[in-house]
UniProtKB/TrEMBL annotation:
InterPro entries, per the entry: Poly_Biosynth_Transport
UniProt feature, compositional bias: Basic and acidic residues: 648-659
Intracellular or extracellular location(s): Cell membrane
Protein name: Lipopolysaccharide biosynthesis protein
Record field: transmembrane: 35-57, 63-80, 101-120, 132-152, 173-200, 273-293, 314-337, 343-364, 376-396, 402-422, 434-455, 467-488
Record-stated family: Belongs to the polysaccharide synthase family.
PANTHER family: LIPOPOLYSACCHARIDE BIOSYNTHESIS PROTEIN WZXC, PST FAMILY PREDICTED COLANIC ACID TRANSPORTER
Residue span of region Disordered: 1-21, 509-530, 593-672
Segments of skewed composition (Polar residues): 594-631
Topology of the protein relative to the lipid bilayer: Multi-pass membrane protein
Amino acid sequence: MSGPEQPGTADRTAEATAQPSVDKLSKTLQRGAKISAIVLVVTQSISLIQTLAVARLLSPAEVGAFTAGSILTNFLVTFSEGGLRAALIQREKNLEDAADTVFWVTLINGIVMSGIAFAVSPLIGAFFGGDVAGAVCAATAAVLTIHALTNVPDGLMQRRFNFKRRMIVNPSTAVTFAATAIALSALGFGVWGLVIALYASQIVTLVLTWWLAGWWPGRGHFSFTIWREMARFALPLIASEFAQKGREFAEAGLTGRILGEASLGMYRYGRRIAALPGTAIIQIASYVLFPAFSRIAKDAGRLRRGFLRAMTALWVTSLPAGALLVAIGEPLVVVALGEQWRGAGLVLMGMAGYGPGMALGSIGKESIKGTGRSRLLNWVTGTSLVVSITALVILLPTLGLLGVGMAASAEALCAGTLAIVIGMRVAGVRVGDALKVLLPVLVAGVAAMGATFVLENGFFRSDGRPIVIGLGLLLVDVLVFLGLYLGLLRILSPSVSRELASGVRSALRRPQRRTGSDAAVPEPEPEVVPTAAVPTVIGAPTEALPSGSSGPDAPEWNALDAPTVLIASGEGVETAPPWAVAVTERLYLAPVAPSTNGQTNGHSNGHSNGHANGQADGHSNGQADGHSNGQADGRGPGRSRPGHPAHARRDGRHDRDAEPLQIVRRSRHDGS
């Protein structure tokens, strides 16, 4: 099944489905993370402005009617995609055929899901006890087909780290929905203004995505074999999305059924504001980390360091955001939206754990998907369903809107914790290394939350003040919280504090050419050749670290031909004695005499650094550090290869800046 190839688009289509290179991956991810952060600030600011404006123009009951009517559409969108977009991003062969296959399958799914939504719309109206909800459900059914048309071009852009979507599509979509919703709500369209705004934003997304992706169906061919392969990968993803959407469906459905449409409207806006940090995490993590982990999945060292640095970045920002919601959530909503929306503040406070839980879950899930082990997500999916339903049934009848928010937090934290634990095993991250990041941030955030809560509710009471004074007092709350949080974090974990400061400085300054030291995922490392002098474990992964450094946060070096020392290690503990490392560094950095008469770096007769039998650091047959019989790469005594730093300078000392020493750990347990 294929359509005619569009004239003049063959080259662009081939480029869109080309295999992305992992060369200079860290710079690509730095650029992508910065673009995502900038676009995120823009889109979330627009969304927040739209929420505040519409809340002043519409009543909670009208917003609740739109939420009830669109609940089924939000649920069925999972099945229209069928997890195949993620499978397309992760795939590495037959991409043109895979793209065509995903396009036709998801398009058919979208049409079928639209028909189902339209057919059952009367049941939605009957469930919520109103005709408006059923009419909205029928009116929004076609959105599923429009969304299905964006799956392949969007997936290909994400796979290629094409950040045009982040820079153009997302802000355009947010602006379209906000402008349309605000204008029509002001004109008295009520709930139908939101329906029209939804279609307008989806059409803008569709047009821009296809225009920027440069892909058209027809270059490849539909393949049942490829579909079956991708479906096996996608099935656990569908189950995971089903659990997430099912939980949201149950939350909104039970809230509207038990508490009424007005409470459902408060739930929607409270959840919308509370989910801003979590939404940010999902967007950045899924768009940047998933394709990145997919490209480096076979490199244990890079995957481990990338996992830890990503976890640090997301946890150190999401945890304080959630803690701040507990301290000032309710007064913030009252001051911003008005007294009639106070119930949304309770949802906001209850969902304080949602963002941190999403941070943990996103890192874990993206690493699991990136390594192709999507079946492990079934454990997270099962946990999510059990915890969410149980917490909702217990907390909703007793605590109302606050209970709904707390149920969402419980689900996110439990599922996120399990996902990060599984992700750590997949990425080879030790529990101790993870706790060094997680615990100090948690303690600092909770302490700052308690102090700010007492300040706001015991002294300021911003929700009882005029709007200008209330906003000013809330700003003071935020500044006090940040000061306490950053100060405690500096005391409890200086390394995490420095990492946070470095990330902020990197985000603020203009991109420069770097060696990868502050990259989100390190640059490719030099190939390691095992030596006969140092025992190793066959098949065990290796991790290259510069001299004098250790751990995943150590600075990276960009030396492709640096001399390498191979050190066997156990479960996170070096089994090589410390004196061996010290002696190696001393020999490497010590003054050396010029090489003459068949000698290289002061060693002769095929001996180097105390190793005999003609072997030295992986080199044999009378060679030492690439030199043989007084020659450097066969070019004569004392000479070096063109374009390669010399091993000895004229002053008789080693050029350390030219070639940093690489210490390589080979684990007996990781991945073996």
